[in-house]
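Aim 2 progress update. The chain analyzed this quarter is reproduced below.
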Amino acid sequence: MRRGRAEGFTLVEILVALLVLAIALAATARSLGAAIDTTAALRERTLARWVAEDQLTELELSGEWPALDTKEGKSTMAAREFVWRRETSATPYPRMRRVEMSVLEPGAQAPVVRLTAFVEQTTPQPGAQSGAQPDLPATEATGAAR
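Predicted structure tokens:
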């Protein structure tokens, strides 16, 4: 009888294959973890944006002429608590106000999302002359009639 070489894989070949497999699985796990983190951050920003949009919509629908100040409040969206800050400032046009809405996580200093809107005064201010036109830049004041 002749004794030949046994067929199959050697121990070294199996260990090398397992090493390659372990490296591939580690890279896959890392990618999956990064994708989960990204999804959570996108969800957080989406919810915060909805809070900001809700607050700006409420302001618009109320017809309120916002005072030049800063207001803060809390809102819940999808069982998450958010803190919002509304900063109202003047614009070069007396009948327009700039409203900046920032939404933060409770206890955080940096906003998750920040939206800016402009609100037009639709009702006359007390003491204002009716029919008074806002001071427009020369290019708009001399434009063709509509």
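The chain is about 40% helix and 25% strand. The radius of gyration is 31 Å. These observations will guide the mutagenesis experiments scheduled for the next reporting period.
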